[in-house]
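Good day; I would like, with your permission, to put a structural problem before you. I would ask you to consider whether the tokens describe a fold that such a sequence might reasonably adopt. The full record is reproduced below for your convenience:
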Amino acid sequence: MEIAIIIILLIFFMFIGMPIAFALGFTGSIGLLVYGGWDTAMGILQTSPHGTTASFLLTTVPMYILMAEFLNKSDIIKDFYYSSHKWLGHYKGGLGISAIFAGAGMGAVCGSSVASASTMASTGYPEMKKYGYNTSFAMGIVSSSGTLAILIPPSLALIIYGILTDVPIGHLLIAGLVPGIITAIGYIITIRFMIAIKPDLVRKSVEPAPFKERVYSLKNIWPTILLIIIIISVIFLGVATVTEAGAFGAFSALVLGLVMKRLTIKGMKEAFLNTLETTTKILALIVGAMIFGYFLTITQVTQNIINFASTTELSKWTILLMVCLLYLILGLFLDGTAILLLTIPLTFPLMMALDFSPIWYGVIVTKLIEIGLLTPPLGMNVFVASSAAGVGVDKSFKGVMPFIACEVVLIAILIAFPSITTFLPELNG
């Protein structure tokens, strides 16, 4: 009964708008006092914040955020769209496909889905409208393109998952590469399919750019592409740790921005401040989640769930389906980081007890969170893209529906064929 009251209290605090980090930490502290007593609660509260954050592994987070900030302030992402536009714009639906390619490129240097969606909405949407794209269709494309950043390495969601579960982050990032590419291909197929059944979604054609102009468009993006290849390669080959690769990426992004004369002193200052703010929020969430996790451990909630699953007659695939539905429901109301921190202490031990791969499960959870970025009523990517483009949210939500259907199909494929996710980490040893 007391456990139910603590859970209801957590939901209440989140409902009234308390920051999730504080809601987790406060309700976890109350639970520790009730179940463990004063000494236990104070002991955990005195040691957990420092013990949780004083970790070399956590330095991975600010490194990749800083790299993304430097590249974003240098307008590298706009160059990705400009180049994709020149090479693909003249095909049917080419501007939409260009947005997907640019979103994949931003995912490879950013790791922030919301930032990617905002950039694509302000850069890609006006160009699509210029050539007669249906408003809902165009907004569906730019909103969905941002979700690629949550899966394609370096993915902050996978990094946080690795920190929470002690699964090697390098293996997780490598595991997200192929599913991320497949997701981009799935989005492109969705665009072509929608245009095939509704040709009036695109009313004008784009003239092919001269070949010389296409080649010239690569001038500003090839250093970034090279940087991405180097980072992924050193992680895959084990030449450097994930943290070292992130530090190298951040320093290289700084050098690129300065050499290209795109990064100003003001831009550098904003990049550092944004990195500090985002990192602080993530660390606060992790501390709050750890306190709440201790409460779950003391009350043996996780163990009871595992025991129930082991004695039930339901198959492990049915239980997996129920867990997937839970994530889809939570995605309607919470952001991805909050969902990870709330659920992983419960669902990860359960999935391991059912003998699922920890790396594969991390990618599946990330894909489920990806859907939550598009679904109403929260749909963070949709709100951010709508704000950046100046379009009504209702039209944007209508536009993302085909891409949500695509995501469901892709998750089914990844569940049916786990080797799609695991073969690269296994190859890496």
The radius of gyration is 22 Å. The chain has a mean pLDDT of 85.
